[in-house]
Structures are given as structure tokens and as C-alpha cells.
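Two entries, shown back to back:
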Amino acid sequence: MTIAETLPTTSSKSFRRMQWRMLLAAMFCYLFFYTGRQTFGFAIPGMHEEFGLSKQTLGWVSTGMLWAYAIGQAINGNLGDKYGGRRMMSAGAILSCGANWVVSFASGLTSLFVPWALNGYFQALGWAPGSRLLSNWWAVSERGKVYGFYVFAAGCASILSYVTSLVVIDVLHLEWRWIFRLPVLLMLAGGICFYLIAREKPEDMGYAPVDTGVANEQDKIHESSDGQQESSRQRYLAVLKNPRVAIAAVALGFQNAARYGLIIWVPVHFIGSDWKSGDSWLNPTWITVALPVGMAVGALSNGWISDKLFGSKRYLAIMLYMVLGALTSLWMWNLPGHSMISLVALFLCGFFVYGPASSFWALCPDLVGAKRAGTATGIMNFSSYLFAGLAEPLIGHILDLSGNTSPIFLVVTTACLLSATVAYFVKR
């Protein structure tokens, strides 16, 4: 009789409660992560006024964080496999909070850039290690649902970062430095709670391990054998040799380019149109809120659809939403920015463009197994932010040449269609 056979069954009600406890703990922690990195834009006007730095220069400060985050994803996903997601994710929340406080005492460009870039690396301690922990607790058949909830928490984090920043500026009437001091206290609390509540794997709680293997027999060669201890180099090589991971990473890159095309440039489009005339009863704030709300709900739905409707064939759920995202973006291109229809259309843009993220992250353990899930997640997230970073100056250049902001939606449409096309080749 093996040790696993002597442990409590994973079909028991108590184990089911533990599964949900781990998922909710990870969601609670990541719900506050964006308060540590998506608040920078709200501080730009104050920093511009105090330091005399141009918006382009401050944009490069933001880029430093973005690229550090991408590099951190490639590194920290592997470290999550090695040291465990519980410790890594908690450390990321605590260290990012500290880095934000350092930024709040900045006195110029260097003292802004260095700690903000370092913060990007600390932020990268969250997503992939947290994904690694979840893959230990949930089997293949439920990963779409689980990652849908996880990505839903990330979408809600965008809403929370927006709201908390506005509270600091418009309600408490504090200077920009407090944007880096108050909202991140929620992230600090989330990281501490996660460490106290979460456990790395079922065996740590006295349960037998779940079936955390790959979803496809063709990917068995890319899965770590039971009891096999791998070095970091072996994990990287195993993941990078899996062609499905490489294809999924490219598809995710185009999806994230579309996502950031909306997040960064849609406010520019709407605030610069009829919104600012004051003739409409609607306010630009509605647009800013509608987008992340749509993204959060879309992510929750897509993971469920990939499990229930497509039998864990993630590429079908990805392709469906990417095509619908392209069509909705084309619709946005022809709509006036001051109508209620535009508000609904933008919600749907966020819904379809960001929705497939849950299926993309569920693909990582599907393709390489739970023991390499952190490494695969990190590599794919590196690709996603590499593409997003490359797309931003391209979009800016196109808008400069065109003299208006509507081409944003043509770029998003193109990125969605490219993502759908590439995702087809992940099929199993």
C-alpha cells in the first residue's frame, strides 16, 4: 500500500472545502496586487508638476516597471516551482508594498525610476507562483473554472486600484505621494493573510495528491515524473522544448497587446472626444470603470466555458472570444464616444478581449503538468508583456500619424484576430 492510499480521499467534503479555501485565499491576495502597480497613471500629473518631468519621461519610468515585471515573470515562475507559491506570493506582496513606499519619497527621476522598476520585479512574485499553488490543488477537469476565478480577481484588482487612487486624490484630497502609501496597505494585508491561510499542496494538509497531470497524452513527455527532482535548468529546457507552450505564448502575446491597447489608450480616446465638452450626461469615469468590469466578468465566463462547453479544449474558448473581441472592437471604431451604446460596447470589448486570459493560464499546467506550471506560466507571461510593451509605441506612432484616436480599435481588432489564428495551433 502506497502512502497516497493511506491519506484521506480527495473526493471528501473536507477536501473540497480546502480546495475552495486555497482558491479564495489566492484570489483575496491577488485582488490587492494591482494597487501596487496600476496606480502610477494617477500620480503622473502631480509628479509632472513637482519635478518638471515630461509625460514622455514619466512614461519611460512606467516602462521600466513593465519590463522588470516581464523579466521577473520568466524568473519567478521557475522559483515558484522550486520554493513554492505560498512563500513567493506573500513575499511579493510585502516587498512591493515596501517599494511603493520608497517611490513615495522620490525627489527626482532616478529616485522614481529605480524603485519603481524594482517594484515591477516584486510584483512578478505574485501571479505565476500563485498559479503554481492552485495547480497543486485542482485537477485538470476543473482548471478552466479555477483560473477563471483567479483571473476574475485580477480584473477586480484593476477596479480596486482605480477606486482607491480616486479616493486618495478626490475624496481625501492628498498629494500624489499618498497614492503609493495608502492603497498598497491592502496588498500588504492580503499577502500576510495568504501566508497564514494557504498551504502549498494537499499533502501538507494530510490529503492524498490530486491528478495534476497534463491534459493531453501527447504532452506526457513534457511532464515531470513522480518523485523526480529537477534543477531550474531542467525545468526551463523541458518547458521551452514544448511547442504548444511556445505557440500559446505567442497567442497570449497578441491577446495582451490587445488588452493593453484598450487599458492605456481608450481613456485617451474618450477623454479627448465629446466627453470633455460637458454636453453629455455621461462622464469619462464610466468608461474607465466599464472596461475593467467587462474584463473581470469575461475572464470568469471564459474559464467556465472552456471546461463545460469545450471539454477543457482551451484553444476553442480562446478563439471564440478573440473573434468576438475583434468584432466588438470594430463596432467601437464606428461608434460615437458620448453614447450609452459606446459604454455597453466598451464593456463587451473588455469582456471578450481579456476573457481568454483564464484559458491561457489553465493551459500552463495542462501542457506541462503541475510540477512545471510555475515555470510555464512565467515564460508565457514574459511573452505577454513583451508583446504589450512592443505594441504601445506602435499604437502611439499610428495615432500621431492619423491625427485621431479611433485607429486604436483597428489595432485591437488586428491583435485579436492574430491571437485567434495562432491559438488554433494549440489544438489537441
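entry 2 starts here
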Amino acid sequence: MTTTASGSGPAADSADVRRIALALPGTVEKEAWSMPTFRVAGKMFLTVPDDETSVAVRCPILERGELIAAEPEKFWVPPHEAGSHWVRVRLAALDDLDELRDILVDSWRQAAPADLVAEYLTAH
């Protein structure tokens, strides 16, 4: 069994990713490029590449470099995504499911309509 980076429990897996993503308001799962993608209001905010050991999430390009520099064991960008607003996240490197949830919610917020985000934030 793989454990989290902090050793506090089992590492997140694609089932956790799917469960957390689909719990976010307005989220739908749609296959694209032969992999699961997750969208809100027609905008993609999450993909699960075929090896299921990482996910790709939205990340403002100006913040991405700092994020990768601070935690390169968790975050990276493949060459074909260098010009995009996406960053990859290694699931086994996350501290726990709360960190995964925070990352997915942040990505969702970047794609969701403002009224849906406001409604979600009020409820949580």
C-alpha cells in the first residue's frame, strides 16, 4: 500500500479524485483524449491521465513557477503543457485527502461561474 507523503495514511487515488470532483456543484465527468476529464459550466478543470498516478489542474501561469519551485516533488509541468494554465499533481506526494480537496476546489473555482462559486463558499 502506498502512503501519503506525510505517512499519515493511504495515498489519494483516482477514486478519491473522482469522488471529490463530482461532489463539487455543477461538475460533470466527460471522457476526452481517452481519459476522464471533469468540467463545470462546460469548462474543464481537471483531467486524470491514463496512469492515474497524477492529475492535471488549472493553475494561474504566474503562480505555477512558484508552486513548482516550492514543492517539485508534488507539482510539475510536462513540456507539452508549458504554455498552458495547467499543472500536474503527483497523488502519492500529497499530505492527505484534505490537500487533494483543496487543490481540486481551487481548480474548480477557476472554471466555475461566479454565482456557483459564491453559493459553494457560503455553504462551506
